[in-house]
Amino acid sequence: MSVSVNCRQAIHRGRVFQLVRENVTLDNGTTTDLDFIEHPGAAAIVALTGENDVVLVRQYRHALGQYIWEIPAGTLDPGEPVLDCARRELAEETGYAAADWRKLGEITPVPGYSDERVHLFLATGLSAAAQRLDADEVLDAHCMPLAEAADMIARGELQDAKSICALLLVQRWLNDLPT
User: Fold this and answer.
1) Residue 162 · residue 44 · CB < 8 Å
2) 3-state DSSP call for residue 148?
3) 75 and 22: one domain?
4) I need a labelling partner for 1 at 20 to 30 A (CA). Which of 39, 71, 146, 155 fits?
5) Which tens digits make up the pLDDT trace of 15-41?
6) Are residues 17 and 90 in the same domain?
7) How many domains are contained in the chain?
8) What is the CATH number of the domain that holds 119?
9) What is the bridge-based pairing of β-strands 139-145 and 53-61?
10) Domain containing residue 12
11) Cα 49 to the chain's mean position, in Å?
């Protein structure tokens, strides 16, 4: 099975992503126009202290018109290795560096209209680093027990998909550790 792309047009180029329209012929023979967002990808980090406190950020998200709770994350720069992006974003957003990194997995947050992939990491062995927020980032970093972050998910106070996925993967990883 394969889908044939008949033509492609960039409809809008933004600062981070672009909106694309492709005319495609589907496996069933139907020809149609499909619009989607091309995104360079991102890295997202669950940063855990030695006491299993997690570093969350409370960040303004204009599309939602409110502040929301998230794990630190950011968009890949062109040609940037994923782990380098994770290290950069952790320091920039939280003021922490990490000695130990573990890849938790990768998610496709909205495959119906975007090709974005978010690489999820666990960062431990935290130490102080220089926080360097971008001019358009309005956020505050907070440490809280991992169990409290899980409770925030259950109460609907933390709704960000990448954060929920990563936090649940970390909880599973911690539960699977030998005692």
Assistant:
1) yes
2) helix
3) no
4) 39
5) 999 999 999 999 999 999 999 999 999
6) no
7) 2
8) 3.90.79.10
9) antiparallel
10) 4-38
11) 20
The arithmetic mean of pLDDT across residues 131-150, rounded, is 89
d(C-alpha 75, C-alpha 132), whole Å: 15
Residue 23 shares a structural domain with residue 84: no
- Are 82 and 22 members of one domain? no
pLDDT at residue number 48 = 96
Question: What band does 179 get if pLDDT is binned at 50, 70 and 90?
Answer: low
Mean pLDDT to the nearest integer, 164-168: 97
In terms of Cβ atoms closer than 10 Å to its own Cβ (0-12, 13-18, 19+), residue 63 is exposed
**Same structural domain, 46 and 59:** yes
Q: In what order do the strands lie in the sheet with 31-38?
A: 4-13, 18-25, 31-38
Q: Look at residue 36 and give its three-state secondary structure.
A: strand
Give every CB contact of residue 104 below 8 A, 6+ residues apart in sequence: 46, 120, 121, 122, 166, 169, 170, 173
Same domain, 100 and 134: yes
Same domain, 12 and 91: no
Mean residue pLDDT across the chain: 94
Q: Which pTM does this prediction carry?
A: 0.92
Q: Where does the pLDDT of residue 139 fall: very low under 50, low under 70, confident under 90, or very high at 90 and above?
A: confident
Same domain, 34 and 56: no
